[in-house]
What we know:
2 copies of one chain form a homodimer.
Chain A: H1 6-22, H2 28-35, H3 39-45, H4 49-71, H5 78-89, H6 97-100, H7 107-133, H8 143-162, H9 168-180
Helix pairs in contact in A: 1-2, 4-5, 4-7, 5-7, 7-8, 8-9
The first copy, chain A, binds a DNA duplex (30 and 30 nucleotides) through helix 3.
Amino acid sequence: MTQIRPQSRDAIIEAAFQVFGADPRASLADIAERAGVGRATLHRHFKGRDDLMAALAHTAMAELEAAVAEATRDATSYSEALRLSMQAIVPLADRQWFLAAEAVEDAEHRREVSDGYTRQKRELADAVDAAKAEGLFGHDVPTAWIAEAFDNLLYAAWQLVRSGEATPTQAAALAWRTLTTGLGVTKSDK
Amino acid sequence: MTQIRPQSRDAIIEAAFQVFGADPRASLADIAERAGVGRATLHRHFKGRDDLMAALAHTAMAELEAAVAEATRDATSYSEALRLSMQAIVPLADRQWFLAAEAVEDAEHRREVSDGYTRQKRELADAVDAAKAEGLFGHDVPTAWIAEAFDNLLYAAWQLVRSGEATPTQAAALAWRTLTTGLGVTKSDK
DNA sequence: GCGTCATGAGACATAAATGTATCATTTGAG
DNA sequence: CTCAAATGATACATTTATGTCTCATGACGC
């Protein structure tokens, strides 16, 4: 008797990303309105705020994994895989804040989201170590820092895109340059 | 009849930074409890949630300005001023999320906070331009990106500190290196 | 020690968010 | 077209957050 039409569910999730992104305190009524859906329908699809939050986290995670898998399909090295991943993730960075934020309160869902997040972190660290072995990063730089810088430069790139100052491709290129060689004057510079 | 004891006010602000930092949806009762203060007292000091938010933004802004002013007191160049500023801001980065977040809803307070935030952004951009003129950054790199990277690497540094993987000094040094020369292999590396 | 004033605790009223139930209407599959 | 299922609108009960008030208590200046 419930949730067969995927349209409503998708619209709600999309609206929730937008509205919660602007204001984490927004009410479920706000979400329903933005989704162009009745408040009751929202409750038919999601038990409550927590359930919705968990769905958002799940969606963000799936999008992230799909984008990375697609982007790294034909990478020939870990270094290139990292670069391609950054390029691919920039456009969806605005939905990833959700994974870092401990937005899910329910213990059961929390665990699931947390596990996925931890896994993502570990995979990034592994990729960084591999790239380090390929000579992309200095051995004197802690892996934890590289991963942290990767994430945050990714977010910086998205912010640049959002402000209209660059395209996703341009912003990703800037972030990659910053991560690997920095913003100092290069040989090609006058 | 109101707000003469600064102790309560300070305790509330401190608690609010902590609690809201962990959960923006926290209630004022949560804040009061963490502050070890009665809920009524909180309302005696702050008209409501918005007033408290504005106070937090004001505090964060003041701390930022004071730290930067102190750190750059005897800088001999804009480049050095930027480096010293980064070093100085890392320990208080956890209170700066507040300025970026559009947490203040009241129109009147909003304007004030927004103005201060805009001014900070402009000052950073000016400093970046000056450092660029000094040859610290390449002329081919957009100022907007440098500023964005500065902010986000700052935040990355704080996260590294929070995770216990580095001291503020170490983290700031990593962030500075990343920004200026990147994380690639250096000559000193084997 | 005295008096003042902020505070803490609690009661209270109000507002807002949430969750559920009902029912007429619409949608989409067959 | 027809029917079943999902939806929107509405009403309702419940919970939670908020804001105000009162009063006894404790802290601090004098």
